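PROTEIN–LIGAND DATA SHEET

This sheet pairs a single protein chain with one bound small molecule, flavin mononucleotide, given as SMILES. Inputs appear in the order they were entered. The predicted three-dimensional arrangement of chain and ligand is reported afterwards as a token string under its own label.
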Amino acid sequence: MAQMHLFGYLMAGPTWHLYGGWRHPDSDGLEALDPARYETIARILEAGKFDGVFFVDFLTIFDSFGGGYQTNLREAGQMCMMEPMQLLAAMARVTSHIGLAASMSTSLYPPFHIARAFATLDHISQGRAGWNIVTSAMDSEAQNYGLKKLMEKADRYDHADEVVEACDSLWETWEADAFVGDRENNIYVDGSKVHYANYQGRWLSTRGPLMTPRSPQTRPVMLQAGSSPRGRAFAGRWAEAIFTLQNKKPDMQAFYADIKQRVVDHGRRPEECAILPAVDVVLGDTLALARERAEEINAFASPTLGLAELSNVVGLDLSAHPLDTPVAELELGQAYQGIVDSIRQGAEAGNLTLRGAGEAWARNQMTPQLVGTAEMIADHLQDLFESKCCDGVMLCPSLSPGGYVEFVEQVVPELQRRKLFRTEYQHKTFRSNLQN
Ligand SMILES: Cc1cc2nc3c(=O)[nH]c(=O)nc-3n(C[C@H](O)[C@H](O)[C@H](O)COP(=O)(O)O)c2cc1C
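PREDICTION REPORTED AS:
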């Protein structure tokens, strides 16, 4: 029987999507620079038999709101304060089964760097590396890397195809038995089993070989989070799991069917790409207690920071518009199409003004907040899973680490009781567990 897949969302910064949440006394937001914080979360989620954790990563401090980054810094918006691959290496050393993934931009990192970094992580973790393939969306990110702006959006995924092809050619440069280690015959590596890549694309080329021997998985598990038509086509070709933000059942089912079809069109089996919408979960022993708890947590949300964060994703300085402007009247940018679509769906449904949008966005609006008892949450997740809305979820809690702990202690056992989730890891590598 098919089982669900679970991922934990991470950012190397003060807060995930509850903007202002770092001020809650139970938040670990002040420990953003401490590797122990991430090691603890990895251990918690491994105890819950999660498939993987994944770090988002943006290569800029967001400064779209009010002409600068003051609000974002003061109130602790989304900030990637640490380079995630190095944190994953630390997390690898205190875990043995959970997958360890990070975003790395195809637009800003050369394939040789990407291939080397993930091959190294795959060795360090003994086969648990994962790459969330992102194309980046902000010109300020490009400017940090010496470019004026990013490549035109229409070309970014074509370019990303080349980056992944180039990485693949590098990961293949060492045959599996090239490393010999024979002291007696003085053979460390059999050079006849190491090859040049000589990849040549339209935009880029790489010579190889990689210096890193073939890693346990050869290539990291490939993840993706785009939802434009071209982003979906890209996922159909490469993604082994895709993160989404849909939260209404018909939208989820349509997205699910569309991606699975694209996967099949690329000659892959539908189960080779897990579809994982983001959820936040707030638990209580009764519904009333869970609601009380959600209210207490959500009270930390800052509407100003919500608007600042929204400004970044829609590519507009929303401080320049009156708070009673209906969101439906604004021309929203398409840099992050999936995110903007979810805002638009919400705005049209709710006649939302900027004031309401700031408030809603501050309350983990990127991810629907599921509030209830463990059994109610398990019912909901089971329904989504069985009605082909998803293959599991990405947990993005309002509060870390408590949101992970509660889910692992209460919801996971309920899913396991229903045989919807593994009770033990069956395999050693990230990919084999994910495809199980
Ligand atoms: C859940 C989620 C996580 C994302 N994580 C990142 C990230 O870490 N870094 C990044 O540059 N973009 C990230 N993105 C943006 C997407 O990777 C993608 O580049 C963007 O949505 C534009 O593609 P699209 O128009 O096809 O949706 C994320 C998007 C979603 C929905």
